[in-house]
Queue: 3 jobs
Job 1
Amino acid sequence: MARIRTVKPEFYADQKAGSICRDARLAFIGIWTEADDEGRLVDSPKLLAGSLFPWDEDVTAEVFDCWLKEMEGQEFIVRYSVETLRFIQVVAWNHQRIDRPSVSRIPCIPRDTLDKLSPNVRRKLAAGTRKGKGARSKGAGSDGAPIPADFGLTDDMRKWATEHSPLVNVTTETKRFVAYWTGEGKLKRSWPQTWRTWMLKEQGYGEQRQKPANRSAATLDRTFG
């Protein structure tokens, strides 16, 4: 079922969008209306050609497949398989603002396919696909993305840590965080939020370690004060 989607004006000035042919750009906008609320759809050039270009006899499955290859080449979409079925994930789907998004019935990108993608694509996928108005914080699906290969501290993260987890060696803990989750290979909807949760837990551990020393000092004050 086709859906109403938003086209931002800056799309037309985007250099990467300009690197694919005009028909492919139009087709790319078209597949937004075919994608579900998490930016996924069935990879069928024949069905997409018939749905998006019903009056154009020259738009065959082969032609539409070429357009999809152009989109994939510029990292606008990821084409992937689950068992014998083929699907498409729109990469930067969080530009859409969706009221009350529905959970996708299409499986997410398999881990072995994710590992082959560029860091840029993985970073965009890790940003999440449920950023629309009214998106649910829980129960919106168990999928996500693995920790980006280039995940690291930013100035904003350091500033946040200084305020909320001052007892934590943020550089060391971030390295531990990355090493742990890289080894786990689990998917998360928001890696920055997972990082903040990790730092808050470490802050709690630091506060617990300080309590015995504080009690001892208080006892000495009462005894010899």
Note: The chain has two domains: 1-145, 147-225.
Job 2
Amino acid sequence: MNTRALLIISIVSILQPLARAQVSDYLATSAVDAKGIRHTATEYPRNHPAWRDDCIKAVGPEYSYADRQRRNMGTGLYRLYIDLKTGDVTSVAVVKSTGVATLDTSAMTAFRKWRYKPGKWKQIDLPVTFTLFPPRLSPDAVRLPKA
């Protein structure tokens, strides 16, 4: 193995811990309550939306090694449709794609595992950012457990 190959392997192994998928800042979100009224995060004190606290179960999207290796990155916006009786996410739609199908699929798969307090929310729009070099987290960013 030549020195160039060693250097590339070293750089890749150093960069791997920096890769991350996270639900982006809640300020960019909105939700439709049980009565059908749409709310935005900025309507709440200190921009802390109620649906953030009503989440019972949240799982972070998987950022696959193949996507990281191909340097696939992007931010997408996803609409979660929630069953009012159970709080389960029944389906997920792409509002704005990351531009990479595998990243969108990963986010949608994770969101289908989410659960909210029953009887409160019909829909919630959430952004997800996949990045190899994460910026500083905003105060509203939420780290999620891995899938």
Note: Confidence is low (pLDDT under 50) at residues 1-18.
Job 3
Amino acid sequence: MTKTSSDSTQVLCDEILAEARAQGETILRAARDQAAAPVARARAEAETARRDRLSRTRAEAARRRELLLATVPVEAGRLRDARIEALLQSVHDEVGRRLGAREGLDYRETLVRLAALAIRGMAGEAFLVALAPADRATLGPGLADEIAARAGRSPLVVELADDPAVEGGVIVRDSEGRQVWDNRLAARLERLWPELRRQLAVQAELIAGGVQ
């Protein structure tokens, strides 16, 4: 009888322990399941954030690439314009140097033409042609008469005058000093350069023919 009671007690204990273990496993599974959900959400959110950052990074990289590509034609055009301008300026400087050195010029003929051109554009009958003292000393004899003849007007009085400020070419004034025509070589180059520059650029195919 004692053995039977003892056996029954053992069986009951075993059943209680088994039930406790089963309930414990159920609780652990539930706990694991409950813990897994936040972890999964956190992982999902982290992955979403990573993808968003990657997407934003790619979008920003694409935007910067497009901006960079957009600046390439502008920068290329700027560099091209700078090179063209430097080339044209070198031509201007070389022409100025040659005029100053009077290279390739029949200088007497040049002075006659410059003075006659100025006189034809001015009103009056008497004019004073100012030129460098050295030019007057070497070219003066008969120069006034040549200028008057070349101007193609009559009656006409042309006189010569020394002017140290005239390094090359002439400055023509009427007898009353109301009209002045600066036909020095350097001044004439500066006056004509904008159009000469355009023509040079067109002929060298640096710019289109219609571009000013």
Note: The helical segments are 2-101, 107-120, 133-139, 143-151, 185-203.
